[in-house]
Every structure is written in C-alpha cells, then in structure tokens.
Amino acid sequence: MPSVVPHTIPHQHTRASDVRAIRLPEGPVLVESLRLGVPSGDGRALDTLVATLRDRAQGSPGYLGEVHVDRSDGHRRVVALWRSPTDLRSFVHAAHPDLLSFRAATGVFPTVERTLWWSAEGAAGVTADEAERRAVHLREHGPGARAFTLRSPVPVPA
After folding, report:
1. Which strands, in side-by-side order, build the sheet including 111-119?
2. Reduced 3-state DSSP string for 19-52
3. Is pLDDT above 80 for 101?
4. Which helix (H) or strand (E) holds 75?
5. Would you say 110 and 46 are in contact if contact means Cβ atoms under 8 Å apart?
6. What's the burial of 67, exposed, middle or buried (CB within 10 Å: 0-12/13-18/19+)?
7. Separation between Cα atoms, residue 142 and residue 137, nearest integer Å
8. Angstrom distance (rounded) from CA 66 to CA 54
C-alpha cells in the first residue's frame, strides 16, 4: 500500500494543451472533477494524497490523463479524463486503501466530491471554472446529462 504520510510535493499544473497530446479515443471522453478536502485544510497532506491517487491512476486501465489540479480554499480539485465510468469505478475501488492509509496517517478521512460529464472535445475547454459550475449544477439539480456521479451515470451521448 503506498504511503500517504504528509510531505511536500512540487506544485504541479497540467495544462489542457498538455493532455491533448495524449491519444484520445474517438468520440466523447468522461471528465472527472474530483474535489478533496480535510477539515484542517492541510494542503501538504492533500498534496500527498493527490500524488498517491495520481500514481495509481496512471497505471489504471481507461485513464487518459490529468487536465489540471486546482489548489484553492484548502481543497484540491483534480480534473482527469477517462474512457468510461466502468474504468473510473475500477480505479475508485482500487484507490480505497489509499484513502484508508491517508486516514491512518492523518487521523481524518478526506471529503470527496466527484462530478462527471461527457466531453466531445476532450481536454479542450475543461477549466477549473467549468468543473466548479458543473459541481454546483449537480448539487442544485441532481444528476443529469450536464453533471452526474458514478452512482447515477449517464450514457455516452450519441
């Protein structure tokens, strides 16, 4: 099990233009906006957790790449691209021990908010602002074509 003991990692931003260099499949891709937080707002611990999840994702089937990481208000928002909800669900199950390890190391379980949507353009236009707008839409209106969750997936648009 990877260690998630807090330590400092370099600030990393991946631009959408970097992800577009990844070979994307034909048709829409699944965009995942993952917002992580802890009551203390400990950025170092969250950076370590993000790095652990990033390492695990890179070895996961269906993972297409990270668009960016936003570090604001004591939270971390990671936006990534996936082939399908099934691939993302497999990753989520595989990453559960990482969250348990994080809790053991820090004494807290992180808050996790995941918002999904389909994008025909891949990484183009996927910004932190877009991710926040879709998360707000999901909170206010529930799952639908604009934003959904793994528990309420929306089929790939035609």
Report:
1. 63-72, 75-82, 29-37, 111-119
2. HCCCCCCCCCEEEEEEEEECCCCCHHHHHHHHHH
3. yes
4. strand 75-82
5. yes
6. buried
7. 7
8. 8
Query: pTM of the entire structure?
Result: 0.83
C-alpha 136/C-alpha 140 separation (Å) is 6
Gap between the Cα atoms of 121 and 25, Å rounded: 11
Give the pLDDT band of residue 70 (cuts 50, 70, 90). confident
The C-alpha atoms of residue 109 and residue 94 are separated, in whole angstroms, by: 17
Token digits of residue 91: 């990753």
On the CB side of 36, CA atoms within 13 Å amount to 24
Q: Which residues pair with 123 in a beta bridge?
A: none
